[in-house]
Amino acid sequence: LSLRDPAPAERAELVRRIVVELGRLERMVANTLDTSRLASGGESFPERVALDEIVAEMTEELREFAAECGVRVEVQMSHALTVHADREGVRTVVRNLLHNAIKASPKDGVVQVRGEADLHDVLLEVSDDGVGFAPKEAPRLFEQFYRVEGDGRGRMQGTGLGLYLVERLVTHAGGRVRAQSAGHGLGAVFTVRWPRPAEDRS
């Protein structure tokens, strides 16, 4: 932009791309810092966290990225879904799951986010109709620096830290996470269970 004076329409498109790329860079830096904090035994601060509000916040944060990818995000969350966990940790988990699902999806694909609660846990499910993975790969997805091979669209590049952080943060909060896929090209489903606050278990 500083070297030339593009037409208004081209300038707007360039600015939009810059904003999207800065968002990706910000997520990469955040993941790297979170990994360092976990490795050094950094503190967490469990509290009552409204999961439905975090999902709405992260969906809005990734709105431009989803639009760039041509992916629609559909959310079905029960109201007043409260988990007992570190707030920033929950943000990181939801952000990474949504980001991965969007970049794995084809153009005109749909990412579905669903949340509900049972007596002891709050469940969050993020599913896509994208690249998927071989079922035998499921346990390895949460290894540090492990990455599923993409489909040539260039979106699957990353640090390999996102899902590693998801598993570490969820486990640290006393929850669990599971990855499922029927195979390459058949989409994926990631399911997280967080413990409910003790006062909500009635």
What report would you give on this structure?
This protein has five helices and seven strands; from the N terminus they run H-E-H-H-E-E-H-E-E-H-E-E. The chain has 202 residues and is of the alpha+beta class. It has a five-stranded mixed β-sheet with strand order 2-4-5-7-6, with helices on one face. Strands 1-3 form a two-stranded antiparallel ribbon. A hairpin with a 3-residue loop joins strand 4 (110-117) and strand 5. Helix 2 packs across helix 4 and helix 4 runs antiparallel to helix 5. The longest helix is centred in the N-terminal third of the chain and has 32 residues, at 8-39. It is globular and about 60 Å long.
Q: How far is the first residue's CA from the last residue's CA?
A: 58 Å
With strands numbered from the N-terminus, the spatial order across the biggest sheet is 2-4-5-7-6
Give helix and strand order, one letter per element, not per position: HEHHEEHEEHEE
Gyration radius from CA atoms, angstroms: 18 Å
β-strand number: 7
